[in-house]
Write a structure and sequence with these properties.
Elements: H1 3-14, E1 21-27, E2 33-39, E3 44-51, H2 65-72, H3 84-91, E4 95-100, E5 105-112, H4 116-128, H5 134-153, H6 156-168, H7 182-187, H8 190-200, E6 206-212, H9 216-226, E7 250-257, E8 262-269, H10 280-292, H11 298-306, E9 310-316, E10 325-333, H12 339-355, H13 360-376, H14 381-393, H15 401-410, H16 413-423, E11 429-437
Parallel strand pairs: 2-6, 7-11
Antiparallel strand pairs: 1-2, 3-5, 3-6, 4-5, 8-10, 8-11, 9-10
Helix pairs in contact: 1-13, 2-5, 2-8, 4-9, 10-13, 10-16, 11-12, 12-16
């Protein structure tokens, strides 16, 4: 089957199947939005609570508080003591966890469908009645500090990425790592977490997503019962935090123990703000797939196999975010090749797209690869819930998901060439180099699992 015939087929597979996965929404009087997707293929349900508050909402001196509060959400309320939340989910035969990003914080449980009411009761309880015991807080901050040491400070690639981002952004809070700066973590107090919790953990700043073997009317009734009594609260005013224009290339180097050197390049690019009117973010998604989206993509074909400049080369771009976008290139040079040679090779691949439009087959393959990745999410209830929550958290209505796929399909070779020319210049570029240092004789043990 030709690639050009594959894309319409994939879009057809994305269409709703009657009785399989219909989506419904209701907003409670307190502002809480409840989105339910009925998927009856298995007697299980995913229940997620998304708060539209992440590390980008933090202030200097209190970085990392969003993530620390996420940990504290498992430390108990007057109705459920420390650790009881996890124990009750496990007793129900389910799993649970949470995650913090720059844009949002989310909590989830996947349990048998008849346990949904209990999960809602637990989540509604900690949405308003978190204990925040000072001793538990001090212990959890120490856990997060060790997590930072193990996952960032002792990981050269993570350290390089952190420094690159802090250099690429000068004003926008995306410059701050999600886990926070170590000095801020050392000085966080329970009052900082309490302020964060009181500011953002409110029903009118949350979305509940339920996907699984459920009836939407029954879910709405449960949400009204458990979340409905919670009071809406006045949210802090979110001020614009636009990043000033970059006026030239920024460069930095990081010295850290590592096996191989590494180069990372960050270009300032837009993200989706208007699903229908925007063009460039979709073209940038396609460009990323053309450069490094599969084994036959340009970086693997040219830089790794043909020229043997790199042992690995990747491109990364997320078109959905509350803040500004960055298109990342990342590569490690082959033995005998320098970082400067590899940087020149990465630039040459971009220049090739700027100078000559990509082929029809190359374009079709990139589209098929991207859209297939989206279609495969339908196999997982958790992935479906994640997709709904992530889109809503960054301001994109979940109902426009199909239109996002159609917009990817509509991208032309000329539009891919246009974005390569428009955004991939030295003026908006930040380059970071990892300079390997001798490895220590004994490495730290792996980071412990959260919660």
């Amino acid at each position: 089957m030709r690639q050009t015939r594959l894309i319409p087929l994939l879009l057809a597979l994305a269409a709703p199947v009657p009785g399989l996965a219909e989506t419904f929404e209701q907003q409670l009087p307190n502002g809480l939005r409840v989105i339910v997707k009925e998927d009856r293929r298995a007697p299980t349900v995913v229940h997620m609570v998304w708060y539209r508050a992440g590390s980008m909402d933090e202030t200097n001196g209190r970085t990392g508080v969003a993530h620390v509060l996420e940990h504290m959400m498992f430390k108990g309320t007057p109705n459920a003591g420390p650790g009881e939340f996890n124990r009750r989910v496990a007793a129900a035969g389910g799993r649970d966890n949470a995650f913090t990003s720059r844009d949002y914080t989310a909590y989830f449980q996947q349990v048998p469908e008849h346990k949904l009411a209990e999960m809602m009761q637990l989540e509604a309880d900690r949405m308003r009645h978190l204990t925040l015991d000072p001793a538990e807080f001090a212990q959890e901050v120490r856990v997060v500090m060790e997590e930072r040491r193990l996952r960032t400070e002792d990981q050269p690639q993570s350290l390089l990425f952190e420094q690159l981002t802090a250099t690429a952004f000068q004003a926008h809070p995306y410059r701050v790592p999600i886990i926070g700066w170590m000095n801020d973590l050392e000085n966080l107090a329970p009052a900082d977490a309490r302020r964060w919790y009181d500011n953002w953990y409110a029903p009118n700043n949350a979305t509940v997503v339920v996907v699984g073997d459920v009836d939407h009317q029954a879910v709405f009734a449960l949400a009204t019962q458990h979340y409905g009594p919670l009071q809406a609260r006045q949210l802090p005013v979110r001020k614009p935090q636009d990043e000033p224009p970059q006026l030239g290339t920024r460069r930095l180097s990081v010295k850290a123990p590592a096996d191989l050197p590494l180069v990372m390049m960050a270009y300032k690019v837009p993200v989706i703000r208007h699903v229908e009117q925007d063009v460039d973010p979709y073209a940038l998604e396609i460009l990323g797939a053309i450069l490094a989206g599969h084994d036959a993509a340009r970086f693997s074909t040219s830089l790794v196999r043909r020229q043997q400049l790199a042992v690995e080369a990747e491109a990364d771009y997320d078109s959905t975010a509350r803040g500004p976008g960055i298109f990342y290139l990342r590569a490690s040079p082959s033995e005998g090749k320098s970082v400067s040679e590899l940087e020149a090779g990465l630039r040459a691949e971009i220049a090739a797209v700027q100078e000559r439009a990509v082929s029809a087959d190359e374009l079709a393959r990139a589209k098929a690869q991207l859209i297939a990745g989206q279609i495969y999410k339908l196999d997982s209830m958790f992935a479906q819930a994640m997709e709904i929550g992530q889109l809503e958290a960054v301001g994109i209505p979940y109902a426009q998901k199909r239109r996002l796929l159609e917009k990817l399909q509509e991208v032309t070779a000329a539009q891919v060439q246009t974005v390569a020319r428009r955004y991939f210049s030295d003026q908006g570029l930040t380059v970071a180099e990892l300079v390997p240092q001798p490895l220590p004789s004994a490495a730290r043990s792996p980071a412990p699992a959260r919660h």
